[in-house]
């Protein structure tokens, strides 16, 4: 069977409600199953806004966002949530147990699936370190968990749902470089058939992506692989040197 999870943006323009100027202009790209698409750009460039259009946190002003050829505006929200897992830039944990937090998107997941997701997300040790294990309590907003653990638990939660598309919005920024690399290697093995879209600040996080979009002021100014962009993109070079 053909792999699912092809994401296509066609000439997308977007304005926040009430705003004058568009935050995104003429955005076109395709992200394919089995591949990793990365988005990089300075703060305020529009990266979070861009990834929020697929799960329909907002709808486009013009253009189209398609999932496997179907405009997301024609899909119902439960279908989108079952097929697209987004790890937000500020991941949110609920007050309740780790298990409750991990099962959020897939209530019938087995314990084995939860542990597998934790292992991939490099969070297994953290959960095992207390005898309460999966029953360990998380405070509202995850305030009794570090930023890096919050990111990892949130990544594990996305993995549990086994979606066609993963969106990681700056999900590796609180991790040290070695953990970041380990996590992404493990992730690669577990997401072979899925489309992976990674927003990042750190070039090392996305250097091995199949395609990188360089976003500046709401526009894609350059695109290519890491090696291509090093040659062709002054904006990318600036990010590398920063
Ligand atoms: P973002 O899409 O949040 O920019 P970013 O994700 O690239 O930035 P960062 O690296 O810091 O995460 O914002 C783009 C523009 O849209 C910016 O001018 C702020 C504006 N904006 C709103 O007006 N309302 C919103 O809810 C958000 C998220 C952004
Ligand atoms: Mg952002």
Summarize this entry quickly:
33% of the residues lie in helices and 25% in strands. It is α/β, with parallel strands linked by helices and 242 residues long. The longest helix is centred in the middle third of the chain and has 14 residues, at 147-160.
Characterization of the model:
- With 242 residues, the chain is α/β, with parallel strands linked by helices.
- Helices cover 33% and strands 25% of the residues.
- The protein has two domains: 16-84 and 183-242, P-loop containing nucleotide triphosphate hydrolases (Rossmann fold), CATH 3.40.50.300; 87-162, P-loop containing nucleotide triphosphate hydrolases (Rossmann fold).
- It has ten helices and twelve strands.
- A six-stranded mixed β-sheet has the order 6-9-10-3-11-12. A four-stranded antiparallel β-sheet has the order 2-1-4-5, with no helix packed on it.
- β4 and β5 form a beta hairpin.
- α9 packs across α10 (234-241).
- The termini are far apart.
- The mean pLDDT is 95.
- The structure holds thymidine-5'-triphosphate and magnesium ion.
- Magnesium ion is lined by residues 47-48, 89, 169-170.
């Amino acid at each position: 069977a053909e792999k699912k999870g092809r994401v296509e943006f066609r000439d997308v323009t977007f304005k926040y409600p009430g705003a004058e100027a568009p935050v995104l202009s003429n955005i076109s790209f395709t992200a394919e199953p089995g591949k990793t698409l990365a988005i990089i750009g300075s703060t305020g460039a529009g990266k979070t806004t861009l990834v929020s259009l697929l799960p329909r946190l907002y709808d486009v002003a013009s253009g189209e966002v398609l999932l496997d050829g179907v405009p997301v505006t024609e899909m119902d929200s439960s279908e989108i949530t079952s097929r697209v897992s987004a790890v937000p830039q500020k991941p949110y944990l609920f007050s309740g147990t780790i298990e409750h937090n991990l099962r959020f998107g897939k209530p019938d997941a087995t314990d084995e699936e939860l542990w597998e997701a934790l292992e991939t997300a490099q969070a297994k040790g953290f959960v095992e370190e207390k005898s309460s294990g999966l029953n360990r309590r998380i405070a509202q907003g995850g305030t009794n968990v570090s930023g890096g653990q919050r990111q990892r638990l949130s990544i594990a939660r996305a993995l549990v749902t086994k979606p066609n598309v993963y969106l990681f919005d700056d999900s590796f920024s609180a991790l040290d470089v070695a953990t970041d690399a380990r996590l992404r290697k493990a992730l690669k093995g577990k997401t072979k058939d899925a489309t992976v879209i990674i927003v990042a600040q750190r070039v090392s996080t996305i250097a091995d992506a199949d395609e990188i979009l360089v976003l500046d002021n709401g526009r894609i100014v350059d695109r290519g692989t890491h090696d291509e962009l090093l040659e062709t993109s002054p904006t990318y070079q600036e990010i590398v040197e920063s």
